[in-house]
Amino acid sequence: MDDFERDVVARALAEDLGAGDVTTDATVPEGARGRARIVQKQPGVVFGLGAAAETMRQRGVDDVDNLVVEGQWREEVPAEVALASGPAAGLLTAERTALNFLGHLSGIATLTARYVEAIAGTGARILDTRKTTPGLRALEKAAVAAGGGRNHRMGLYDAILIKENHIALAGGVAKAIHAARGAQPKLPVEVECRDVEEVAYALGAGANRLLLDNMTPEGLREAVVLRNAEQGAEGPPLEASGGVDLDTVREIAETGVDFISIGALTHSAPTLDFSMLIELAT
Hints:
Layout: H1 2-17, H2 22-27, E1 33-40, E2 44-45, H3 49-57, E3 63-66, E4 73-74, E5 79-87, H4 88-118, E6 125-127, H5 137-146, E7 160-162, H6 164-170, H7 173-183, E8 189-193, H8 196-204, E9 209-213, H9 217-231, E10 238-241, H10 249-253, E11 259-261, H11 264-267, E12 274-280
Parallel strand pairs: 6-11, 7-8, 8-9, 9-10, 10-11
Antiparallel strand pairs: 1-5, 1-12, 2-4, 3-5
């Protein structure tokens, strides 16, 4: 993650700085030093302090101290989460980019934690998806993990998921599974199903895992019953997807599915509010 994080931060700073911070260059005395406090202003899970610190380091601010443990819910706010000291100009030019990373990643961790809490005790697990911000997938998926979720498919390269279009182009579910197993015999094969009939067919074709796409709670329960009847509860895991929000996730989890994948964790998480307060160091 270190090299990746460095590169992502460098690109973000270049995007913001361009030819230079004209306001800071005009108003901050050369050589001035400052102290900064990063303050969490909303309850939630902090994640992204590493990216924030890397942003400051790349602007010449090496003295950064984290005050909290990432991945833990904090209810009492406002609260300081990090301190930094160094060149005042560096603190100012790093401020917005550092807070963008911290707020975005903490927002993902916080939303994930809300979903995890909503299904507590059901036995289901929350998964992320590939619906991530281009270029930020590794950081966003790390934020999901910090919030208590699980990462599922870092990309197209590490897992087989046969969806509707693959089935159509392959000539059917059985042909798609056979072709996938022949090409990647060491990888389990997951198949997308839209109704109980497709679940039955995918189970019969030997799928290792089923993605139940936009099925009603009744349909999900029927899929669980069918899986258990044919192969037992230890048969292919069932992953529900589509139509999931904080109001519906508990009902979905109580159908008996093993996993619930939620694209909104990464594509729609509200930013958690932070501020950076800077003062001159004497």
